[in-house]
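Hi P.,

Sorry for the delay on this. The queue was packed all week, but I finally got your sequence through. Input first:
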Amino acid sequence: MSDEKNRSVAEAILPLVGGAANIRSVAHCMTRLRLGLADRSLVDRAALQALPAVLGTVDDDTYQIVLGPGAVAGVTAQLRRLLDSGVAAEAPVVPVVPAEPSSAEELAGRGARIRAEQKARNATPVKRALRRIADIFVPLIPALIGCGIVAALSGALANLGWVPGLVAALGAVSSGFMSLLAVFVGYNTAKEFGGTPVLGGAVASVIVYAGVAKVEAFGHHLTPGQGGVVGALGAALLAVHLERWTRRIVPAALDVLVTPTVTVLLGGLAALYGLMFLAGEVSTAIGHAATWLLAHGGLLAGLVLGGLFLPLVMLGLHQALIPIHTTLIQQQGSTVLLPILAMAGAGQVGCAVAVYLRLRHNASVRTTIRSALPAGLLGVGEPLVYGVTLPLGRPFVTACVGGAAGGAFVGVAGQLGNAVGSTAVGPSGWALFPLLAGPHGLAASAAVYAGGLLTGYLVGFLATYFFGFTRAMLAEYDATAAAPAPAATAPAATAPE
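Then the structure:
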């Protein structure tokens, strides 16, 4: 979108979330504008979802507005400019015309209730901790994607033997961030858990310092980068606790000198003589486990991961996968798990097409599907999940069957020696093609991934068309519906943010 269009969207959103005075923080991930709000009762959710640029909303730790990849960054920048300028934009609100109750509206309301109930069930200490860990890695995703695409381009040029000088330059561009990834993880960890961010980054930087090769721990010389993001996460968490402990016992007059020194000294030594070795063992085990899983049980692994990913999202357990993805990318250059998990979205797309054909008299649901399907093809499956398939019930299950079939296809390919990986986390669907990597080159990887998508589409469609509806459901939802209503969704995340 152009700057003018992004600004108009930001101006339309601002009054609908309570105005500038109600906004405490502004951030974004791959697809969502994330707002920290003082009073959520001031949000006009119905009017927000009526905006053409808004794909849905999520009421979570932050209030999240789904705008889609690309658009979200531009709108976030314009919203920040509005807030910085002190302009409380009073853009005209898109009117919501009252209409007769329609099936699409009922499904959206049911989806919102499911989301609220699931959020309440997910409010456990373990799941809150997983969400905080995910929040450490989500801000890193844009850089991971950019570096991943540059790495893929560098690999393609190297395979073709073209422009060797440029290949070396592209390798440096793509590898620079990855070589310092531990520092960024340490910085974000300290920031998330209430410490001084730069101290978290300083302690984590010990892990990637070349001079650690001269340090001997547990009878072995350390390797720069040993432990990767797992070690950085642990080192930064330790730094946060050391900082808090030191501040409690050090006089205020000495705090500025003593606290940083103690935090960096003790945290750095603990990283060298404990965390790097332990985290290195964990990271190595993660890599070996992923490789073994696809080599010996690709069919079963793909079936289970592809079929259960969306239920994992509903339980909030998918967030534990983000550090695993990042560890695999740092260790092996790509994560072989993400292309399998992306098949869950393919099952949803095939399911949505079947729902569209089965409910041929329900204009409102069909309108919702038409508006959400392009985003679903690009990997933004939230509107389809919480706006269509999950509220309907049975189609959500048949969509998961499609995801399992697509995952099994990709898993079998891995078992046969053509494991497909992604050089970054974040995108899925068609948007993942530029990030694919594998032992036989981009073309072979793209062919396997495309085969998985087609399998997911087809099985999701067939399972839903023939088994997704009972006669009672068809009688309820396929009656002639009221005039089409705007899609209203309460999405859940489908990709590791």
